[in-house]
Amino acid sequence: MFIQIIEILGTFAFAISGVLVALEKRMDPFGVLIIAFVTSVGGGTLRDVLIGVTPVTWMLNMTYVYVILGATVFSIIFRKYLDYLRISLFLFDTIGIGLYTVVGIQKGLIMGLHPIICIALGTITACFGGVIRDILCNEIPVIFRKEVYATACILGGFAYFILRKLPIDDNIVFVISGSIVIAVRLIAVKFKISLPSLYKDEV
Amino acid sequence: MFIQIIEILGTFAFAISGVLVALEKRMDPFGVLIIAFVTSVGGGTLRDVLIGVTPVTWMLNMTYVYVILGATVFSIIFRKYLDYLRISLFLFDTIGIGLYTVVGIQKGLIMGLHPIICIALGTITACFGGVIRDILCNEIPVIFRKEVYATACILGGFAYFILRKLPIDDNIVFVISGSIVIAVRLIAVKFKISLPSLYKDEV
Amino acid sequence: MFIQIIEILGTFAFAISGVLVALEKRMDPFGVLIIAFVTSVGGGTLRDVLIGVTPVTWMLNMTYVYVILGATVFSIIFRKYLDYLRISLFLFDTIGIGLYTVVGIQKGLIMGLHPIICIALGTITACFGGVIRDILCNEIPVIFRKEVYATACILGGFAYFILRKLPIDDNIVFVISGSIVIAVRLIAVKFKISLPSLYKDEV
What we know:
Structural class of chain A: mainly alpha
Number of domains of chain A: 1
Number of helices of chain A: 7
Number of strands of chain A: 0
Distance between the termini of chain A: 53 Å
Radius of gyration of chain A: 17 Å
Largest sheet of chain A: none
Order of helices and strands of chain A: HHHHHHH
Helix content of chain A: over 70%
Oligomer: homotrimer
């Protein structure tokens, strides 16, 4: 129940982040909806396709569809006022990636995959919706350039596998490692920490 | 038999629309072929992968491959005269999306998916070949910005599920809802109707 | 054993080619790693997804992951000196596409697919890592424009199916057709042969 509420908030925030990018590109309502959809469920969809869980998750659970439709209509109508929600949306989004990371890791564990692959699946679940959104909008994905986003997922993922070796209840492992993802992202944004961009001296 | 002819005409028209975009980007013959291929079968391929029907359809039916190869060679040779075929190609293309939409819906029904998901699958089948084409050509997909294309598919999809509740033969449901897709697109192009592009006032 | 060494060299060279493109785009270390990964395993991943072999190959074999991680760290550290390795990298890369092409063909044969589809799968395995890399970096894929890369794979693929009809040992068919891919590419690069880019006279 608690997890479902978080999942809905995360889906909602992801969808709105998609709407905001689509509006900047002056898309029509259909384009805005697709971008909202892809941002929300794209990461989980890619994960499902790579591990062979089909039909992919969102096709079997109409909650995602309704939340994304609602978020899109809501944010198209109130598009001039979305800036006032910026902090709430940022928090939902951050909670969403924490949850998505752990959900992705657990799907990998169910398939019996290696911990590093599970962490990759968690990171894909949390981050690749945004990557596909940026590709569809003809941008180099923002998380490849300046966001501490994937790094938070990877650190939370390692925490998950360390905690799992200790005599701790599975639910607590879930909550702590998800919280680490959230904390790393909040701290990085608060203190403007990001990975340095790399380049060769002579280009 | 009748449906197969339509499918071949649609595949042919989709392939040529891919060739035209690839020529504008001055690709080499291999690039042109890939873009033709992706435009024709990309939507159905994405649908198959999402619902787990693999190997994807075109790998099991060489007709697609031969039609696309033929369309590519034809349109490379006659590339200077393709403008004369514009109206025929537009008609084939429009008939193709009508057919592809209903085919996609039916694949969703076979998997036991919710009507809204089926409509999404129909729209993906008809429209996402063009989306992948535009991504490979480094453009924002045209259907997100100005084409009444997806909207026609969605309206036809709703018609399909309304008609299906009536005591009508399945084949007639198929033909009518496909025709609605075609009619909506023809009317929209004829009267230059499109969805408004959205943006925030202050950008 | 011999094949595994070639595969590791190919994976290594592909990963570094990804790093080089990512550095030009001034990505952060995470972005560089993802591009290296996608360049190395993207083609095989797309092939696996299209034919329904899941979880995809690299998730079940940690060798790929370690080689790519190693190649990425190596080439980030020595990024200023990579130019000195240009010829070695080009050779590894070329050997890699020869191997990947034949591996892809054989996966198609195992699924009982038509020879033309098998050749397409070989070409996808060898070339689409680079295609996905270029899309993520917001470029029109280079192989659609000027590289004799796919052409080499296709020629090697036809050779494979011609040789297979002769009374020759399977391993020798493997080696000869892979070598043809390598030879065509080397000759094309040496003599600066490429397919002409196509365009309509009036644009």
